Here is the input.
Amino acid sequence: MCRWLAYSGSPVLLDAVLYRPEHSLINQSLRARMGVEATNGDGFGVGWYSTDGDGRPTVFRDTAPAWNNRNLREIAAHVRSPLFFAHVRASTGSAVQQTNCHPFRHGRWLWMHNGAIADFHRLQRDLCMAVDPVLFPCMEGSTDSEVMFYLAVTFGLDQDVPGAVARMAGFVERLGKEHGVLEPLQMTVAVSDGQRVWAFRYSSCGASRSLYYSSRAEAVRRLHPDVDYLREISDDTRIVVSEPLGDLPGMWNELPEASCAVVPSGPEPDYFPFLPDPG
Here is the structure.
């Protein structure tokens, strides 16, 4: 499968999150601890929003392994962003090519995924035919992840993010069962419009891939007043990751099965239940 990271909060250099932590995403590309595969070397991607842009994210993707890509290191040392995605890929069967690397972009939206649609080759035609014809030419690759994204856009991502993702997941499950695929969906998904991040953890079998979110900054500061970088970030800074970036006690929380986390969450709870909408 894959490993991914979503950051939202105080503008930081990408390098500070992608490379510097003890168990950074770049480290996970070579030595993941919780993934199906330890190595995620089938390409990578980063997507970021700037504070002075038009609201559309910039995306950089490559088929090379993240751990030795000099261009990624160069960009990460010079790009500062308040909200960005990063993804390291382990292909589940689709080709290793730039158009299959995450995150995917459409307008103001970014999307990335870890998991798979089981027997995707059997379901692919019917799934693609459900994508809005206006959106169909936007799909450039051959992954189930990209099809899931454009299904979510088709099902109303602009109006209701959790609802659109629930309708996408419900459609995949309904179609899978029609084709005799009893447990069709495995997903941890992140999606952003540049203002908020929604992160979903769900699988048809009830045993989803790992997903963690950081504790509220003020709570971690109280636990670790001597940690310098915690004093430099805003209270609403949060990170969602496939696996923790380090072992700082009190920093990481596992997102429960069948849940959605929203960042920034404000005074609301950090997550709420998520279930597919069968339609």
In short: The chain has a mean pLDDT of 95. The chain is about 25% helix and 25% strand.
